[in-house]
Amino acid sequence: MKPGWPGSLRSRLFLILLAGLLGSQALSFAVMLLERDQSARAVMLTTLQRDVAVAVALLDRLPARERPDWLALLERPTYRFEIGRGAPGTPALPARGQMIADEIRAALAPRFPVRFDAVPEPPGRLQAHVVLADGQDLTIDVRPAARAVASWLPVALGVQLLGLAACVWLAVRLAVRPLTRFAEAADRLEPGRPATRVAEAGPDEVARAAKAFNALQARIARHLDERVRILAAISHDLQTPITRMRLRVETGVEGAEQDRLLADLDAIQALVREGIAYARSVHGDVEPPARLDLRAFVESLVFDYQDTGRDVTVSDLPEATIATRPQALRRILTNLIDNALRYAGRAEVAVRVAGGRIVLAVLDRGPGIPEDKLEAVLLPFVRLEESRNRDTGGTGLGLAIAEQLAGAIGGRLALRNRAGGGLEATVTLG
């Protein structure tokens, strides 16, 4: 983006259209002033020619002693008559002065020869010198002046510009609003959450784009649902042969080989259970929401771990009530606590209320996660062999299930490494 150029499309369109309209308005105003000046000049020259011919003929017929009394009556805003030779000047006339001189010469010729001088001040002033029949000098002092602009004209132009700006703003707003709605709908599009349909209304192009976007959301939802159902079906169907294999191994010859086979079957069965749990987590919104005493809920969960000898503590537990899906929230916290216990040996649960939102945090002092892998570990079946040993167990689905369920209950799961080592997993609700 260029410096000084607004970043939003709305601002850019507004400035471009407003600049174009202002330029057109300025050009129209300049053309109007030019035409007005030319019309006024044509009227002035025509009037000047006629009035000067009448005035000079009148003064020529009057007795010399009566002429001064008529000068004031013959005076006009742009010229007046003087008895005498007038002010000194130069014979070189500007273009506009030459035009006025031609009109006066045409009005008085051939009866009265005329001589013209340009007077420096004010600019454009000129004098026509005439000798009357009795030999008396008469000077026509011409002072061209631009016609004053009416006092109401700037106000009218200002109101017109405000109207143009308002129309441009409204047009840009109507044009950009569908893009804003599409962007908001795209931001809300997440697996496990019901898709928000965009209103298929407005101009034909906008309605067509909205229909296409809604169809895209439906195709994505069907594609995801199909893949999840396949995973659930495979995981479910694997349980029966695994059970038969376990029975056969357990009834076989005891020894080290049997122990290894049973351990492999346990790992496969755990993977199948997690696969089913992940498939169900995508549809976590099927559980009806309920009001929950968060303090009692977290304490109960922590006490269950402590009763089994696990090192799980709780801190920063304020009184709070929230409407959520209890089983989904319990599964989220259970997965995060189990993850902390697996890799750090102990876990700490904290609850914070800030800005109308509730943040549940599970903290540990384990090896943490590389910064460039904090997002990747939320994907299914992703394991980090460098920081988390495969021998400690785990299927790579715990965090993925927690992330899916957090989205299904209207929250968000985030991971970050703690200062001094360890991981902090936070679930933000509200």
From TrEMBL:
GO terms for cellular component: plasma membrane. The keyword ATP-binding applies. It comes from Methylobacterium nonmethylotrophicum. GO terms for molecular function: ATP binding; phosphorelay sensor kinase activity. It is an enzyme of class 2 (transferase). The chain crosses the membrane at residues 152-172. It is found in: Cell inner membrane. PROSITE patterns: HAMP, HIS_KIN. Its EC number is 2.7.13.3. This is histidine kinase. InterPro entries: 2C_sensor_his_kinase (IPR050980), HAMP_dom (IPR003660), HATPase_C_sf (IPR036890), HATPase_dom (IPR003594), His_kinase_dom (IPR005467), HisK_dim/P_dom (IPR003661), HisK_dim/P_sf (IPR036097), Sig_transdc_His_kin-like_C (IPR004358). It catalyses: ATP + protein L-histidine = ADP + protein N-phospho-L-histidine. The keyword Membrane applies. The lineage of its organism: Bacteria, Pseudomonadati, Pseudomonadota, Alphaproteobacteria, Hyphomicrobiales. Keywords: ATP-binding, Cell inner membrane, Cell membrane, Kinase, Membrane, Nucleotide-binding, Phosphoprotein, Transferase, Transmembrane, Transmembrane helix, Two-component regulatory system. Residues 173-225 form the HAMP domain. It holds the Pfam family HAMP. It is a multi-pass membrane protein. It comes from the Bacteria. Residues 233-430 form the Histidine kinase domain.
